[in-house]
Structures are given as C-alpha cells and as structure tokens.
Amino acid sequence: MSEAVEAPGIVVTGVSGRMGRMLVATVLASGRVRLAGALEREGHDWIGRDLGEAMGGAANGITVSDDPVAAFARAQAVIDFTRPEASVGFAGLAAQARAVHVIGTTGFEPAHLARIKAAARHAVIIRAGNMSLGVNLLVGLVGKVAAALDADWDIEVVEAHHRMKVDAPSGTALMLGEAAAEGRGIGLGQARVAARDGITGARPAGAIGFSSIRGGDIVGEHEVIFAAPGERIVLRHVATDRAIYARGALKAALWGLDRKPGEYDMADVLGL
Fold this sequence. Notes:
alpha/beta; Rossmann fold; Dihydrodipicolinate Reductase, domain 2
C-alpha cells in the first residue's frame, strides 16, 4: 500500500492584513494545500501567537513568525501581498528555498523589478498586478481594442480602491495601460499621463491617461475608456469580493509547482 502524499505547503506573508487574512482562509478551506507558515513583520504584536487565535477564532496550531528563512524551508510555495521592499527580500529567500513565489504586491520601482528578475533565474516567480480571471481577460480585450483603433481615440484608465490603498495608479491600472500601449505599438512611458491639476492645456494626441479614486471600502473597480468624437467604448471590471484575488493566487501557486524557474504572470497561469 502506497504512502499518502503530503499536500503542498503554502506560506502566507502579511497575515494580519486584509488580503493576508483572506489568503489564510482560502488556503485553509482549499483541501488541496496546507498552511505551512504565517509571517508578519518584525515587532508585530501577532508574532509568537497562534494564528487562529490572533485572527479571532479557534487555535489552529500555526504560530505567527517573523523568520521567513525557516518558514520557506518548510514550504513549496509563498503567497505574498505585502510591500515592494518586503516582496523583493522574500523573492531572494524563496529562490534560495526553491519555493514558488506568488507576488500580488504592487507599486514596484524598476530597481525592485530587476532584483525580482534576478531571483527568477533560480525559482518560479509569478507576479501580477491582479490575480483575477476577469481582470486578466479585460487586459487582453484592452490590447485588442487599442490595436484596432487609431490615435484619434483617446484612452483613459479610471480606477477606484479603498481608502487604505497606498499606491496610485493601481497595479491593475498600469497593466491595463501597458496593454493599451502595446496594442498601439508603443511603450507606456511614451504616452502616460498620470495626473492632471490646474491649467493643463489640451490633451496630447495619443496620450494614455490615468485617474485614481480612493474611498471607503471599495474592493477594486477598473474602467478603460476609448473616446473619439461622437462615440465611446467603455470596458469595465468590478470586484466585489477580495476572495477572487486569493483564489487566483492559490491557483497560481499550484500551477507554478510544475514549472521551470522563470518569471511568469497570470496570463501564463490562465493560458491566455
């Protein structure tokens, strides 16, 4: 009789945050993986506590830690929705442990991305500004529409998120802007207009604009407007439950277990 194969172990970072809690709940409920570790930043008051109790429920035997090296050594994958500086550090440590690193963090600078790219030479990294199936389908549609329309059509990306979000435009908005730019055969840096205030003058031809809204508990809303004289095309995605991102991240982690080292995104995971 063959021995039972242990389910893949997942470490969740930033477990006290909204996404961290959602990721923990998704992993525990999945039946396909096990929670191998729970991480928080050094000095956090959850460190050393049972995770279940810290989250306001029953004890689950997982102790919250601030030691990623030990946690990653026990896991096959890491799911990380934290801050850019933390995610860059986790990328190097996950690569050393040969663990799949799923990154939902946004707000990276070019220097951060270079370090993540270097880590991906040794392990699987799946990074996306949004883990939702619907958003990734929207990204594909935006690219196709932009390719079909000429520069007489103005493009504006409008996004809305909860009041606690610290970066703008959102990672998803930038994904959409990049898809639009690629559809037009240009780099986003050539066309991006990130903010408007005061007497701005007329809109430059071919510009791709961004508008950000922050307020309340908005989970995530993204709209891409293609506007020409006399007509508009509007493509829109509305998220009403943060669980869609957690489910997508878990799907990415499982997909990554069988891949060669490299940097991937959700279009790869979803076969888009």
